Amino acid sequence: MKSAVVAFAFLLSLVLGARSQEPAPETEHGRFTFKEMSDGLLRLDSRTGEVALCSRRAVGWACQAVPEDRTALESEIARLQGENAALKRELVTRGLPLPDGTKGPPLTAKPDQDLKVPSDADLDRALSFLERAWRRLVEMMQNMQREMESEKGKKQLEKGGIDKKG
Questions:
Q1: pTM > 0.85
Q2: Phi then psi for 162, rounded to 5 degrees?
Q3: 51 neighbors 37 (Cβ within 8 angstroms)
Q4: What's the CA gap between 66 and 37, in Å, rounded?
Q5: Quick one: angle between helices 2-21 and 70-93, nearest 10?
Q6: Domain boundaries of the chain, sorted by first residue
Q7: What is the pLDDT of residues 101-147, one digit of tens each?
Q8: Other Cβ atoms within 10 Å of 36 Cβ, number
């Protein structure tokens, strides 16, 4: 992956360098720009932007297009941008300055200032709610216990009735 990124950066610098040094070709004769490499020549098509590596072969010269994985590069750029934004948010939440020297947005309040102690009326309401909830729970359990005992008694009566018949 790193080699693809390095190759893309190199090719991009060639494209930008070629465009800044030479005027745009008006004829077929100035369409290609060549750069000497250890393996041969790097050819840039100024119309399409295609880059090819040309090397000497037994029969003559042959050029092969350099593969470009643009989607991988774009996804890596997006991932790095997201990571950068997350790191900046982390710095801001810790109150640290950002790398460019600016500080993040000021924190609205310190944690101690956000803490509010409940009043006596708030506590009374909360305790009243909990007491009602507890009573309802106990009442539900008592009702379930009565129903279970009643069903148990019915089963015993039915069982006893069967024994008397049989």
A1: no
A2: -70, -40
A3: no
A4: 14
A5: 100
A6: 2-68, 116-165
A7: 666 555 554 555 667 888 889 899 999 999 999 999 999 999 999 99
A8: 8
